Every structure is written in C-alpha cells, then in structure tokens.
Amino acid sequence: MAEKKIIAVLGATGAQGGGMARAILADPNGGFAVRAITRDTNSEKAKALAQAGAEVVAADVDDIESLKKAFQGAYGAFCVTFFWVHFSPEKEMAEAHAMAQAAKHAGLKHVIWSTLEDTRNWVPLSDNRMPTLHGKYKVPHFDGKGESNKFFAEAGVPTTFLLTAFYWENFIYFGAGPQPGPDGKLVLTVPLGDKKMPSIAVEDIGKCAYGIFKRGSEFIGKTVGIAGEHLTGEQMAAGLTRALGQEVRYNSVSPEAYRSFGFPGADDLGNMYQFKRDFEDYYCGARSIEFSRSLNPELQTYDQWLAENKSLIPLKTAA
Ligand SMILES: NC(=O)c1ccc[n+]([C@@H]2O[C@H](COP(=O)([O-])OP(=O)(O)OC[C@H]3O[C@@H](n4cnc5c(N)ncnc54)[C@H](OP(=O)(O)O)[C@@H]3O)[C@@H](O)[C@H]2O)c1
C-alpha cells in the first residue's frame, strides 16, 4: 500500500483542527494520516488524539522553529490562528506569517489556510458606517486573516484559502446563545435585521477541509467558502424554540447597540455582524451550501445540529 500523506493539523485539540483531525482518522483507508499539533502533548485531548491513531507532536505557533519541525516530512497542513486567545490582529498576522514560512521551508504540497475576508476591501477605513478599531481595522478578527492570505501567496505555498462561517457551537462555548430578556423569556440577540448569515457545525469545517485535500490539486490557489445553512436571526431563534421546547425570541438590535454591550470584543463582533448584514449577497454567495455538501456529504443542517447538541447550550434563568 502507498505511504499515507501526512496532514499536520494546527489547533488539533480545538474546534476547527479537532474536526480536521477526526475527519482524517474516521477514514483509515483514505490515504491520509494525522499529525496533531499541540503545545501540550500530555493534555487529555492530546492523549485522546493519540489513542485514536494520530501522531501527536509539540509546537507553538509563536515559535517558527517548532512549526518548521512539526511540518517536516508532511504532505500538507491545516493552518488556523487563534484570535480570541490574544485579540491582536498583528499577532495573528505574525502567526500566519510563521505558518506560511514554515510550510515553505518544509516544501508542503498543499496547505489549507482557514481565513476570512479583509473587510476593508468592502468598508474602507474612511467609511464611517462602522468605527475603525485598533487604528487600522474594521473587523480586526477578519481583517488580519484576510491580510494574511498574502503571506501564503507570496511564499509560493500551494494553498487553498478556506472561508469559514459562524459555528453553531458559539451558542455553547462563546456566549452567543439565548439569554433571558427583561421578562425572563429567552432572546437571541443578533444585529442582523432580516438578513441571512452563513453558519455551520464546526465539525463540518474539518470534514469539508478533508474533502478539499481528497480532491488533490483542484482547489490549490483558489478561495473556497463553506456553510451548513444561510439563516436569518428569526430562523435561528425559531430553530432554538423547536429544539429547546421553549420560546426563544429574536432580538434584532442595531450594530451600534451590540458594539456598546461592553464585553471583550463586542466592538469587533458588532462590526462583523454589520459587515455580514450590509454585504449579505456577497457574504452568503461566497459560502455555497451545495458546494460544501459536495465536499462533505455528511454536512449537518441546523436542525440536525440542534437535535444533537441542544442539551449542551447553557440556559441562564433571569436574575
Ligand atoms: N467561532 C466562530 O464562529 C468562528 C468562525 C470562523 C472562524 N473562527 C476563528 O477560529 C479561530 C479559532 O479556531 P478554533 O475555534 O478551532 O480554536 P479553539 O477551539 O479555541 O482551539 C484552539 C486550539 O489551538 C491551540 N493553540 C492555542 N494557542 C496556540 C499556540 N500559541 N500554538 C499552538 N497551538 C495553540 C490550543 O491547543 P493546545 O492547548 O493543545 O496547544 C487549542 O486547543 C479564531 O481565529 C476565530 O477567529 C471562529
């Protein structure tokens, strides 16, 4: 049997990379093997990956020499950065730059870079519809990723630029789920008006990425976008109502109101939702559900995801 092509997976103990690792491990005859990258090879999650058949290696995205070593001898890599660890687009760009340089050094044949739009191409800094943040960004956690595309292109790394989407897991782990309103009833607060937003089960990001690797060189040099569904706030709330068996109302606030909520990153997320709202046609158009399903026939619908995960969504009661 031909030797398996090794995919080095960043963030393998996390959401996107974990899905990538599990997609490869679930297909033992698919011709690919996982090299899971973590800072701590002794963590429970790292040990579980090793137990499931992954090679587990230590590296830190802030240490390029460790990345070069982790990529050595691999066929490809799944590259993702971790904005919410530090909230710094500059740091995110430095990490993406290190990944691209390490990929070039290792001579990787195919990198999937998990990216998002540089929103300044749609909303220049001079456009006052939303505030400029950190001096030179509109949506910092998007713009740094989009600007980082050039590091992979300029280094000549064979790259697929993967535009991801809002994960439904944000309802569980990111504080984005329903909260009790003033009357004690649950509300889902999203500043989208009546516009649709692409969203996805995070496990499906990894499965779609695996579909891209399996298609060989077809998507190298290309930008591809994925989503499980395109849903309005009303539809997201209605799905939660069905799944939870109690009413969840859609609370459509303005982006200005959302930015003023004051939690860390509220301004960044307020601008993000405004970008998605104001450029709905482009943003949904760049993330085709049919295309995603062609990469990953197991692509979950919102209702399927809710049926599986509803009990994990933390529900606070009114104070
Ligand atoms: N939430 C959304 O809806 C959404 C949508 C699209 C894109 N994104 C983007 O997704 C990215 C985060 O991905 P994720 O959700 O998969 O992250 P995650 O679940 O928080 O996973 C992070 C993993 O990365 C590893 N990590 C953290 N710092 C590291 C470092 N310095 N070096 C090496 N590994 C490190 C950690 O592994 P160890 O502790 O094992 O080292 C951790 O398990 C963010 O940049 C965000 O903007 C999010």
Explain this structure:
The chain is of the alpha/beta class. It is built from 14 helices and 13 strands. It has helices at 15-25, 44-51, 64-71, 83-86, 89-106, 140-154, 170-173, 202-214, 233-244, 255-259, 266-278, 280-285, 289-295, 302-309; strands at 5-9, 32-38, 55-58, 76-79, 110-115, 159-163, 166-167, 179-180, 186-189, 196-200, 223-225, 229-232, 248-251. The chain has a 7-stranded parallel sheet, with helices on both faces. Helix 6 links the parallel strand 5 and strand 6 (159-163). The longest helix is centred in the N-terminal third of the chain and has 18 residues, at 89-106. The N and C termini lie far apart (62 Å). The model has no long low-confidence stretch (mean pLDDT 97). It binds NADP nicotinamide-adenine-dinucleotide phosphate. The site of NADP nicotinamide-adenine-dinucleotide phosphate has 26 residues, from helix 1, helix 4 and strand 7.
